[in-house]
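Q: Hi! New to this. If I give you a protein sequence and the SMILES for zinc ion, can you show me the bound structure?
A: Yes, paste them in.
Q: Okay, here:
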Amino acid sequence: MATLKLIKHVGIVGTIECLTGLRIGGAKEDIEIGGMDNPIIRDPRTRWPYIPGSSLKGKLRSALEYKYCGSKINSGQPCGCADNSCVVCRLFGPHRKPHHGLGPTRVLVRDARMDAAGEDPDRWIEVKSENMIERSTGVATNPRPVERVVPGAKFAFEISVRIFEGDNADQLIATVKEGLGLIEAEYLGASGSRGYGKVRFDYTVLDPFVGRVAGPSAG
Ligand SMILES: [Zn+2]
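A: Thanks. Here is the predicted structure of the protein with zinc ion bound:
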């Protein structure tokens, strides 16, 4: 296989604003023993909630697959067709196919953070009681507490797209932007069908992207 030459990076950099409560689950044992049953994910050091890059990337991928890979999706597996024309495989890498001719994964997604110096992270978190309906009987079970990030919270996000020789840069960037729009039309995180996770992206496209200049409150 010929060596692919990197031409540049293009950055999509901005904020994710929560319009409804956002819930991205964390592992209970990462938080504290005897704590909340359904915690959101937080940085164990600062206790600020964050959106893992892998969560945003996974949602971006699946939203685009519904549009571009509909007939290829079997049993809920991500697209692994590795076709030269498959924009999803080119951006994200073909699923479970180590040998292919598309080159490296194009999309890099950082963790989206909302750290603000001097603020209390708990101000941005609420605990809601949720009634779960037992499907077979239709009876509501005991309400259980669920943590979520409150509407109005903003996370800083950063997506870097690698453009290699031969790539259609405009198409790749347009597809990532389209994917963000599809997430706006759907949801991020858990319980989207209950109205959670409606978000809005505000961003600028930095072309070329040579890394972000650290701001005064960079965390
Ligand atoms: Zn594919």
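A: The first strand starts at residue 6 and ends at 18. Let me know if you'd like me to explain how to read the tokens.
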